[in-house]
Amino acid sequence: NTINPWTHCNVMVLSGEMKPKHPYWYAYILGIYHIDAWLNVEGPTRKCSLKFLYIRWLAPLTDNQLGMSCTRLPKV
């Protein structure tokens, strides 16, 4: 997958909860970063490149009426 904060900055991922109230988590990408770090864990020191996203998590509104009977989509 490709993530570009300048064109499509909203993402949706499967919920990491065991019994989710909502099947997805939503996020807004604020930036994409990478760092070069030196790891010193059990053995010789080695250089490692780490990539990460800076995001803002969004939550679905729980008091929103939604579904086919209301003809409304969930609001985030």
Count of DSSP E strands? 3
Q: Determine the mean pLDDT.
A: 80
Q: What structural class do you assign from the helix and strand content?
A: mainly beta
Which radius of gyration do the C-alpha atoms yield?
A: 18 Å
Short key terms for the protein model shown above:
0% helix, single chain, 76 residues, mainly beta
Describe this structure as you would to a colleague.
- By secondary structure, this protein is an all-beta fold.
- Helix content is 0%, strand content 45%.
- The chain has a 3-stranded antiparallel beta sheet, with no helix packed on it.
- A hairpin with a 6-residue loop joins strand 2 and strand 3.
- The radius of gyration is 18 Å and the shape is elongated.
- The model has no long low-confidence stretch (mean pLDDT 80).
Write the layout of secondary structure elements.
Elements: E1 10-14, E2 24-39, E3 46-58
Antiparallel strand pairs: 1-2, 2-3
